[in-house]
Amino acid sequence: MAAIELRGLTKVYPGGVKALDSLDLVIPDGEFFALLGPSGCGKTTLLRTLAGLETATGGSVVIGERDVTGIQPGARDVAMVFQDYALFPHMNVTDNIAYPLRIKKVGKAERQRKAAEVGARLGLDQLMDRRPGQLSGGQQQRVALARVMATQAQAFLFDEPLSNLDARLRLEARTFLKKLQRELGVTTVFVTHDQAEALAMADRMAIMEAGHIRQIGTPAEVFQRPANTFVAAFIGSTPMNLLDAAVRGDTLEVAGCKVPVPVSAEGLLTEGERLVYGVRPEYTTYSAEPAEGSLGGRVSIVENLGASHLVTLEVNDVAVQAVVPEGDEPAVGDEGFAAPRRDRALVYRDGELVSA
Amino acid sequence: MAQATSPPEARDDAPARRYSVDAAGLGRLRAGAFVAPALALITVFLVFPALWVIYLGLMNYRLTGVEAVNPKIVGADNFIKAISDPAFWDSTWLTFQFVLGSAVIGQVVLGFSIAWMLRDRRGTLKSVVEGLVILAWILPGAVVAFLWVALLDRDSGTLNALLGIPGFPWLLDHPMLSIIIFNTWRGTAFSMMLYGAALGNVPPSHLESARLAGASGWQQLRDVVFPHIRGHILTNLLLISLWTFNDFSPFLLTAGGPDGKSEVLAVHVYKVALQGGDLGYGAAISTIILLINLVVAVFYLRLLRSKK
Amino acid sequence: MTRFVAGRIGFYTLIAVLLAFFTIPLLWLATAPFTSDPTYEVRMPDFTSENFQMIIDHPYALWSLVNSLVLAVGTAVLVVVLSALAAYALSRVRLPGRDALLYALLLLSSIITGTAAMVPLFQLAIELGLIDSQTGLILILSGGLLPAAIFMIKDFMDSTPKSYEESARVFGASPLQIVRHVVVPLVRPGLATIAVWTIANVWGNFLMPFLLLSDVEKQPAAVIMYTLYTEGGQANLKVLSTFGLLYSVPVVLMYLFVSKKYGFRFHGGIKR
């Protein structure tokens, strides 16, 4: 078990594409850490550089106490689960799980004992003689995990571990993976493009964009207080309302209405300043009656989210969304009012969060 | 997702490169060692002969005699001799007939027709027809050639027996027709399989919508099928023309005879250079064959590139 | 309705003509070896085994099949091993000039044919003392088949995900262990395809052994077959037909095996 530390890590591809731009990051021992971002943000490159499959152009990677920047992948004492699991199709489950031990020249009997032990722990005991092609997606994933566990590496790296599973299985696997990581206590870094997955599983996460880390924090921090408009727009199953605003005394003028200055930005704004006002639909209270500090308009769309509804209001040609509990949803064309929660609303100046 | 984020392999002009970064950690040195033996064989036994043939074409090299020991450079003499030799032009003309008749017309038309007729069929009929066509293709050339010698035999051959014209000497009176039909029979399988695969890739919905619009069989072919398989037709034409042009098997059937009446270029080179011993002149003709191959191959490769 | 019937009749007539065209030349090979006194005529065989006895007693016939086997297997081993090594390196490592090299290989494999290169190859064989040498012929045949083989096998390698190798690499496997444990088993169907393709090619090749092997005891079946029917005097049809059949059976069996196991596939349509 070991902590992972990146110092000024940079990766430039031939042709000048900067995949990683001087990243600093510390992942403490035993943490379940998510790298989240859209396609091409550099998260997979970062993971592969940790594994040693890509060489860093600059900076260093430290695992435990050891600087591994110039060390071959096989000597870094990390183990990786690939997006397609990379189970060897010509080996059965036992041989797949035991492969890392074979490389370490562990004797055959010991290898098989260990594989059986790890396999049993992951509920694979009935499948040990099968080939990967005869397994379901979920079973394959567990074999890949078992193989990684058999290495007893200092850190685990998962590349999109759930993306090859169908939607239903993915939720199960999410819970399973989180529980397993907690039990093993091995430092684990995983890459995902699915913010819900990252929020659900990670202890902490980094949100990346174009080779930069835009925010590091716990899921709650990232969800409640996105550090910038990029993270604000990326995180959340319904996108945050990001509305142009201007400071008018102790209120903000948003879409032609007046809303109070959010708690987080009190005393930090100057009169007349132009900003972006952000509030999640989940933190916006909808009502049919006008209320103090709310945004009034006409309901244009109502989307069913299951136990709640996402209502879109046209407020002076600006779309504002609010989540409404089931039973309270309005009809399209109704007049409605959306009141942001003052303690959850945020203000962004030049894309960055305004806060003390 | 993986495609979008997994980057191209890094080159070593990245300054901090400390070890090889290809998937297996092979590194350039070992990779070079992996490629070297194959390249060595190809260089010695393929590239070098091709270059040497050009050099030989400029010499008055002979298999035996004074020039065998002490050949002289004669410049373009061999080439001039070739293009002013009526035998060369006769042979070229025969080769043209052979390629046009057996490859372009015979194999392509027959191969496509079979593929088209069998396109929606499954089961025994299809496997029997395809199996026979493929059998003609995979049997050794020497065996197949002799089967045709037997078939076309003037006195007791099966063909004359079936047609009721005993004593008709096919290989003497119609040597070109014989080798053209022979090569059509022999090589149709490739075109059949290629068109079979191509027709399988024509989306059924396109054919169905043409049928719903009332298109006849011929109209479906013209408006739906041909536009879809145009690339395949071109590929097929270029490849089989190239192969037929270089095919030596007419030699097995007629040995170029009688009187050079079926002496296509492949056989002509053999006769002039290796039987007649005039290596320099033979090499000049070989060079011309190489150039023609080159033109066809470059066309073919450009076609492949434009597809990608 | 009548149009439909007419179409049906037309279809089956055409199929019948096709079947006749492709079957008739083959009939002789199926009947003559089992006929006591075969002529060029196709007759109902009397199922004698005497012709096969003649082949066994023939001084060169069986040996030539062994020679064909030696040439085919020798070339296949050389081509499979060398093309797999080269294709793997070319597929996975960005060697300088790789794309140009591949383009050149593809071009070479299509333009330098036995026909175009027979004169210099013959001379080269004389200079290197490779006339009448089976090893020499194997080297020459391998040189001709390697470019296309490298191309085909590289196709296989390119379509194999790199994550298998990377995975083994993260577990600490050395490059040679990766090749042995992971790459070779993964591309085994590709290697088998190349082996079969090479064997079929060499087994049927007439021109090269005809040019380069003059010693009857070293000649493969293709050359012996040709000698048998062009030699002076009356061709011995008993020997010819039976030998032709024996020489053909292995390729037919191999074809059946391959099409059953892998299906018949195209690999870029490079060469037959």
UniProtKB/TrEMBL annotation, chain A:
Give Gene Ontology CC terms.
ATP-binding cassette (ABC) transporter complex, substrate-binding subunit-containing
> Does this entry carry the keyword Cell membrane?
yes
Q: Which is one GO molecular function term here?
A: ATP hydrolysis activity
The UniProt keyword set, sorted, is: ATP-binding, Cell membrane, Membrane, Nucleotide-binding, Translocase, Transport
Q: Which residue range or ranges hold the ABC transporter domain?
A: 4-235
* Pfam assignment, any one: TOBE_2
Q: Which InterPro entries does the record match to this protein? A: AAA+_ATPase, ABC_transporter-like_ATP-bd, ABC_transporter-like_CS, ABC_transpr_FbpC, ABC_transpr_MalK/UgpC-like, Mo/tungstate-bd_C_term_dom, NA-bd_OB-fold, P-loop_NTPase
- What this protein is called in its record is Sn-glycerol-3-phosphate import ATP-binding protein UgpC
Q: Which domain of life is it from?
A: Bacteria
SMART domains linked to this entry = AAA
UniProtKB/TrEMBL annotation, chain B:
Q: Which PROSITE patterns match?
A: ABC_TM1
Keyword check for Ribosomal protein: no
Query: Which topology term describes how it sits in the membrane?
Result: Multi-pass membrane protein
Q: Does the keyword Iron-sulfur apply?
A: no
Query: Principal localization?
Result: membrane
The compartments listed are: Cell membrane
A single cellular component GO annotation? plasma membrane
Origin: domain of life: Bacteria
Where is the chain membrane-spanning?
34-55, 94-116, 128-151, 163-185, 229-245, 279-301
Domain ABC transmembrane type-1, by residue range, is 93-300
**What SUPFAM superfamilies does its record include?**
MetI-like (SSF161098)
Q: What is a single Pfam family found in this protein's UniProt entry? A: BPD_transp_1
Q: Name one GO biological process term.
A: transmembrane transport
| Family statement drawn from the similarity comment of this UniProt entry | Belongs to the binding-protein-dependent transport system permease family.
Q: What is the name attached to this protein's record? A: Amino acid ABC transporter permease
Organism (species): Nonomuraea cavernae
Lineage, broadest ranks: Bacteria, Bacillati, Actinomycetota, Actinomycetes, Streptosporangiales
UniProtKB/TrEMBL annotation, chain C:
**Residue ranges crossing the lipid bilayer per the database entry:** 9-30, 60-88, 100-122, 134-153, 190-212, 239-258
Would the keyword Membrane be found if you checked this record's keyword annotation? yes
The terms describing its cellular component in GO are: plasma membrane
Q: Which UniProt keywords apply?
A: Cell membrane, Membrane, Transmembrane, Transmembrane helix, Transport
* Gene3D superfamilies noted in UniProt: MetI-like
Domain ABC transmembrane type-1, first and last residues per copy: 65-258
Q: What is this protein called?
A: ABC transmembrane type-1 domain-containing protein
> GO BP, one example?
transmembrane transport
- What InterPro entries does the annotation carry? BP-dep_ABC_trans_perm (IPR050901), MetI-like (IPR000515), MetI-like_sf (IPR035906)
Q: What Pfam families does the record point to?
A: BPD_transp_1
Q: Which organism is it from?
A: Nonomuraea cavernae
